[in-house]
Amino acid sequence: MEIIVTSIFVNNQDKALEFYSRKLGFIKKHDVPSGEYRWITLVSPDNQNGTELLLEPNNHPAAKEYQERLFSEGIPVTMFGVADLDAEYNRLIEEGVKFTMKPTNMGNISIAVFDDTCGNLIQLIQQ
Fold first, then answer.
1. Which of 55, 64, 66, 103 is the S-S candidate for 112 at Cβ 3.0 to 4.6 Å?
2. Please, how many CA atoms are within 13 Å of residue 103, restricted to the half-sphere of its CB?
């Protein structure tokens, strides 16, 4: 068994697709109509056959409340691994990404947290 798709709720699929592809560098794998929304997934450029990230609309009241509560409590919804946190932080700052936590050493890992502009906080980790 393996994880093939993981999802995050977003408050605007177009804005999320723009942010995750242009700012973060993920590659769009699927973008197909699904009712009034779309099934949009992205993958890492380093593993295009790997786990897909689904940009799921938060149109259900429970999803919207869940997303808003996590954001207001400062809780990241997911974690992305990077090889060099300081370099990635600096690259994203140049792209205009807003961080709520600068790179912070926590023993044998370093983490940082940013706002994805679509209702989520995302944590970066260097192990």
1. 103
2. 18
| CATH of the domain spanning 5-126, picked from 3.30.450.20, 3.10.180.10, 3.40.640.10, 3.30.230.70 | 3.10.180.10
Q: What is the 3-state secondary structure (H, E, C) of 16-84?
A: HHHHHHHHCCCEEEEEEEECCEEEEEEEECCECCCCEEEEEECCCHHHHHHHHHHHHCCCCCEEEECCC
Q: What phi and psi values does residue 117 have, to the nearest 5 degrees?
A: 65, 5
- pTM for this structure? 0.95
